[in-house]
Write a structure and sequence with these properties.
heterodimer; A: 107 residues; mainly beta; 5-stranded mixed β-sheet; globular; B: 119 residues; 7-stranded mixed β-sheet; 4-stranded antiparallel β-sheet; 11 strands; 0% helix
Chain lengths: 107, 119
């Protein structure tokens, strides 16, 4: 199984930048790294995907070092509505979810 | 953006009955759909991969005769929980991948999920 390791939980305050790091030591050459967000009783929602270096979109940035054994999701200026579980996935066609990181944003 | 719709969103049934959950890709064709199950405060667990026009591929430990998957068209996959029991109560989520051009594996779109409660 494609295994990733993330912190189980993180706390932050509104307006801060949050960085969630994921380890994927055995990443395969063809694997991409994808991050999803999930709110309670909803399906996961795509945040960002990358292969190496840096990827940025309108909601987040993804940093992947040259060895690709880890990746960091960066959420700029979080708000209360960013409180959710964030999943880091590695893989190709089939994606396996790890434990995820419960992010709690407070005032 | 692409949308995946699941129906029903909630279902309550008696033990021993069968329940069918539909997963539709609304504005794209999905040759492959995935079915996940999620218990409270746990991560999503992949149950099976559904390929259009062929038999589903089940993950280890998932009973194929209990969780029947049919992927009859490029926009519809169904999961039938047969002879449901209380331990089958869970949040079932489907996903589909839009065909991707260029680099990347393509975004995986998830349905809203279906909460099954078996009494």
């Amino acid at each position: 199984l494609a295994k990733t390791t993330q912190p189980i939980s993180m706390d932050s305050y509104e307006g801060q930048e949050v960085n969630i790091t994921c380890s994927h030591n055995n990443i395969a050459t063809n694997d991409y790294i994808t991050w999803y967000q999930q709110f309670p009783s909803q399906g996961p929602r795509f945040i960002i995907q990358g292969y190496k270096t840096k990827v940025t979109n309108e909601v987040a940035s993804l940093f992947i070092p040259a060895d690709r054994k880890s990746s960091t999701l960066s959420l700029p200026r979080v708000s209360l509505s960013d409180t959710a579980v964030y999943y880091c996935l590695r893989g190709g066609n089939k994606l396996t979810f790890g434990t995820g990181t419960q992010l709690k944003v407070e005032l | 953006g692409a949308v995946v719709s699941q129906h029903p969103s909630r279902v309550i049934c008696k033990s021993g009955t069968s329940v069918k959950i539909e997963c539709r890709s609304l504005d794209f064709q999905a040759t492959t759909m995935f079915w996940y199950r999620q218990f409270p405060k746990q991560s999503l667990m992949l149950m099976a991969t559904s390929n259009e026009g062929s038999k589903a591929t089940y993950e280890q430990g998932v009973e194929k005769d209990k969780f029947l998957i049919n992927h009859a068209s490029l926009t519809l996959s169904t999961l039938t929980v047969t002879s449901a029991h209380p331990e089958d109560s869970s949040f079932y989520i489907c996903s589909a991948r839009a065909r991707q051009r260029g680099v990347g594996t393509g975004e995986l779109f998830f349905g809203e999920g279906s909460r099954l409660t078996v009494l």
